[in-house]
Write a structure and sequence with these properties.
By secondary structure, this protein is an alpha/beta fold. The chain has two domains: 130 residues, P-loop containing nucleotide triphosphate hydrolases (Rossmann fold, 3-Layer(aba) Sandwich); 65 residues, Helicase, Ruva Protein, domain 3 (Orthogonal Bundle). Helix content is 40%, strand content 11%. A five-stranded parallel beta sheet has the order 2-3-4-1-5, with helices on one face. The longest helix has 18 residues.
Length: 238
């Protein structure tokens, strides 16, 4: 059994931050006009949709949603598999064999295999096997499948068979709300002032901010200190 399957303890490369408490409930949907984020969440929750492709820039929460549906399937004790292609250099192509028997396969950052013909062909054949199995495929990318420079036209075509959603970035107020909500779930007191400080001085990338919040939670427990701007400055050596 491969290390990315939900049938055994989940392990990922050290640089990959996988959060077991990531869920649909703690995904903050953008209130921007014409945002498809809410529709994407509903589509992922609905098992009738066998292929869902979500795309957008690095700050929109694509990985969050893939981890959320993966965790949702784990809670139901359904066999699932998560492949973060940002670490494809450490993967073997034979890991795609027999994955069609998983109830769910999530592939994060699929655009990163564009131009790698061996991976494109292997994924194309896996896609066909999934179609026959009736199980679910969820992909994320930094662009619409039509605009990703795949070498294999048939793969590009297959990726457009299902539902496609472009996620919208959160504005700063929405990011602050998301950070505070995530902290509350950890029973961690994060003030609006401190959340705003993190956005201004550290990063506006939600993935990086959530990862930082995990580290601050651990550090505050270890040092028995509350989260304050001076503590964060000390932790980050600012």
């Amino acid at each position: 059994m491969n290390k990315f399957s939900s049938k055994e303890p989940i392990q990922f490369p050290l640089q990959f931050c996988f959060s077991s408490d990531t869920s649909f409930d703690n995904f903050i949907v953008s209130n921007k006009p014409n945002s498809a984020s809410a529709e994407a969440v509903e589509a992922l929750k609905n098992n009738e949709y066998k292929l869902v492709f979500i795309w957008g820039n690095s700050t929109v929460g694509k990985t969050h949603l893939l981890q959320a549906i993966f965790n949702h399937y784990i809670e139901k004790q359904l066999p699932s598999y998560f492949l973060p292609f940002q670490h494809i250099d450490s993967f073997e192509i034979d890991m795609l064999e027999n994955l069609e028997y998983q109830s769910l396969l999530c592939i994060d950052d699929i655009h990163l295999i564009a131009g790698h013909e061996n991976w494109e062909h292997a994924l194309f054949h896996l896609f066909n096997r999934f179609t026959e199995s009736g199980n679910r495929l969820v992909f994320s990318a930094n662009a619409n499948a039509e605009n990703i420079p795949f070498v294999l036209p048939d793969l590009k075509s297959r990726l457009q068979w299902g539902l496609t959603y472009q996620l919208q970035s959160l504005d700063d107020d929405e990011k602050i709300l998301a950070l505070i909500k995530r902290a509350e779930e950890k029973q961690l007191a994060l003030s609006k002032e401190l959340a705003s400080y993190l956005l201004r001085r550290v990063s506006r990338d939600m993935g990086e901010l959530i990862e930082l919040l995990e580290k601050l939670d651990y550090a505050s427990l270890a040092e028995q200190r509350k989260l304050t701007i001076p503590f964060v400055k000390h932790f980050l050596k600012l």
